C-alpha cells in the first residue's frame, strides 16, 4: 500500500506536469492547404491564452486583431507575408495584451503595419514595411521589445527617393518602455520617432539611408549604445528633447547632413530649431568620420566623441 508521503510526491509531480502542459498551450496551424485554418484571424479567434498560432509559408491578405496572450510564429520572414486587406486598419493590431510575441513574419502595407496599443510583448526576427508607421506603440507602463528585425517604409523599398519624415519606422509616445536590439532601420522617413515620456534603449542596431535615423523629442529619455548611423539624408540622430540621453560607442559616417544634431538653428538646414538646447547629452566613445558629422561641435565634452576619418571604407 502506497504511503501518504509517496502519494504526496506523486501528486506534486502530477500537478507540476499538468501546470507545465497548461502553460505551454496548444499549437494551431495556419496554411493555404495543409493548416488547420486558412486564415490567421480564424486561428487567433480559436486560440486560448498561452497558445501558439503557427503560420505556414504563404501570403495572407488580411487585417488581424489580437486581444489575448498568444504567440504568432511564422516559419520564416522570407516565407510568411501578411499583407493588409484594407489600409484603413492596422495590418496587425495588438489590443490590451500583457504578453504577446510576433516572430518570423513579414508585414507589408501602405497603412499602419503593426499597432501595439496598451500592450506588452516582443517582435522577433520580423520584417515590418509600413506606410505612415511601421510600428506604432503607446500605452502607459507598457513594454515593447524588438529584436533581430528589419524595419522600413513600403514607399522606400527598391528606390532612393527622398522620403517624408512623417513616415516613421517606429513611432512611440506616452509613458512607454521601448527596447530595440540588433535591428535595422532602412529607407524610412524617420527610423525611430520618440516623444513624450518614452523610456528607451536602442542597442547594436543600424540606421541606414533614412531621411532621419532617429528623432528623440519631448521628455523621451534613454540610451543609444553601439549603433551604426550611416548614409542618412538629413540627420543621423536628431535631439529635440528636454531630458537625458546617453550615447555610447555609436559610429556615424557618410550622413548627408550631420550624423548627430541638436535641434538648433545653427545645425538645421531648414532654418528651424531653437537658440538653446534644453536637454542633457552624456556618453563616450562615439566615432565620427569628420567634424562636420556632429553639430554643434563645441557642445560636447572631449571624451564624448572621436574623429576617425575613413570610417566605412
Indicate the CATH class: Mainly Beta
Principal-axes shape call: elongated
CATH superfamily: Single-stranded right-handed beta-helix, Pectin lyase-like
Mind describing the biggest β-sheet?
Answer: 11 strands, parallel
Strand ordering within the main sheet: 1-2-5-8-11-14-17-20-23-26-29
| Poorly predicted regions | 14-22
CATH arch. level architecture: 3 Solenoid
Mean pLDDT: 92
Using only CA atoms, what is the Rg?
A: 22 Å
User: Proportion of β residues?
Assistant: 35-45%
Q: Distance between the terminal alpha carbons, to the nearest Å? A: 79 Å
* Helix share bin: under 10%
* CATH level 3 topology: Pectate Lyase C-like
Number of helices: 2
Query: How many discrete domains?
Result: 1
In total, how many beta strands? 32
- Structural class call reads mainly beta
Protein topology:
Blueprint: H1 4-24, E1 27-30, H2 40-46, E2 52-55, E3 58-61, E4 64-66, E5 71-74, E6 80-83, E7 92-95, E8 100-103, E9 106-108, E10 114-117, E11 121-124, E12 127-130, E13 133-138, E14 143-147, E15 150-153, E16 168-172, E17 177-181, E18 184-186, E19 190-194, E20 199-203, E21 206-208, E22 212-218, E23 221-225, E24 228-230, E25 235-241, E26 244-248, E27 251-253, E28 258-262, E29 280-284, E30 286-288, E31 294-295, E32 305-307
Parallel strand pairs: 1-2, 2-5, 3-6, 4-7, 5-8, 6-9, 7-10, 8-11, 9-12, 10-13, 11-14, 12-15, 13-16, 14-17, 15-18, 16-19, 17-20, 18-21, 19-22, 20-23, 21-24, 22-25, 23-26, 24-27, 25-28, 26-29, 27-30, 28-31, 30-32
Domain Right handed beta helix: 166-263
InterPro entries: Beta_helix, PbH1, Pectin_lyas_fold, Pectin_lyase_fold/virulence
Protein name: Right handed beta helix domain-containing protein
Amino acid at each position: 500500500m502506497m504511503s501518504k508521503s509517496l502519494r504526496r510526491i506523486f501528486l506534486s509531480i502530477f500537478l507540476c506536469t499538468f501546470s507545465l502542459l497548461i502553460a505551454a498551450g496548444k499549437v494551431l496551424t495556419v496554411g493555404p492547404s495543409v493548416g488547420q485554418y486558412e486564415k490567421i484571424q480564424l486561428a487567433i479567434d480559436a486560440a486560448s491564452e498561452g497558445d501558439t498560432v503557427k503560420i505556414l509559408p504563404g501570403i495572407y491578405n488580411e487585417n488581424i486583431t489580437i486581444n489575448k496572450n498568444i504567440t504568432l510564429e511564422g516559419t520564416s520572414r522570407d516565407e510568411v507575408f501578411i499583407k493588409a486587406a484594407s489600409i484603413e486598419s492596422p495590418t496587425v493590431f495588438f489590443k490590451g495584451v500583457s504578453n504577446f510575441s510576433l516572430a518570423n513574419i513579414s508585414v507589408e502595407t501602405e497603412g499602419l503595419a503593426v499597432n501595439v496599443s496598451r500592450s506588452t510583448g516582443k517582435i522577433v526576427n520580423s520584417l515590418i514595411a509600413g506606410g505612415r508607421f511601421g510600428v506604432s506603440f503607446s500605452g502607459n507602463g507598457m513594454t515593447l521589445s524588438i529584436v533581430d528585425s528589419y524595419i522600413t517604409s513600403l514607399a522606400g523599398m527598391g528606390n532612393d527617393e527622398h522620403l517624408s519624415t512623417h513616415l516613421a519606422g517606429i513611432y512611440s509616445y506616452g509613458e512607454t518602455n521601448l527596447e530595440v536590439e540588433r535591428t535595422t532601420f532602412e529607407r524610412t522617413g524617420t527610423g525611430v520617432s520618440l516623444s513624450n515620456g518614452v523610456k528607451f534603449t536602442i542597442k547594436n542596431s543600424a540606421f541606414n539611408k533614412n531621411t532621419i535615423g532617429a528623432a528623440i523629442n519631448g521628455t523621451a529619455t534613454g540610451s543609444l549604445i553601439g549603433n551604426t548611423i550611416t548614409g542618412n539624408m538629413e540627420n543621423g540622430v536628431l535631439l529635440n528633447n528636454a531630458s537625458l540621453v546617453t550615447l555610447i560607442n555609436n559610429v556615424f559616417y557618410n550622413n548627408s547632413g550631420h550624423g548627430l544634431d541638436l535641434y538648433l538653428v545653427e545645425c538645421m538646414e531648414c532654418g528651424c530649431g531653437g537658440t538653446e538646447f534644453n536637454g542633457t547629452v552624456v556618453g563616450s566613445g562615439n566615432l565620427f568620420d569628420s567634424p562636420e558629422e556632429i553639430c554643434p561641435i563645441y557642445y560636447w565634452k572631449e571624451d564624448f566623441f572621436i574623429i576617425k576619418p575613413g570610417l566605412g571604407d
